Amino acid sequence: MAKGEYGLMIDYEFCSGCHACEVGCKMEHQMPKGDFGIKILQDGPRLNSNGKWEYTYIPVPTSLCDLCSARVKANKLPTCVHHCQAGVMVYDTVAELTEKAKRAKKDTMAIFVR
Ligand code: SF4
Ligand code: SF4
């Protein structure tokens, strides 16, 4: 796999903040305390001036994410994708992810490339 060829796309609209990806990633890579391959950030709860509440979980891969290269070589999905019950994470080529994002036209999607 060439560097930058594959990535993770995360549509955090339906992320429940369950932390399964975070925990699964740490266990898969046997990371020491304090290290994370992905972190769940949180915006809110916060009341906008229009009366609408903002409360969003945003999963963000860190510099320690290697896109689960060992698992992928063994034809398995990255651990975070495998454990996400909400199905908000996709692993694919950057070209394919970009097409999916273009088709979806949403403002809650992010693509991470390694
Ligand atoms: S792709 Fe693998 S290393 Fe990267 S965040 Fe997901 S589980 Fe962790
Ligand atoms: S496993 Fe999925 S739903 Fe749970 S925190 Fe991670 S991205 Fe969000």
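^ iron/sulfur cluster complex. The mean pLDDT is 96. The first strand starts at residue 6 and ends at 11.
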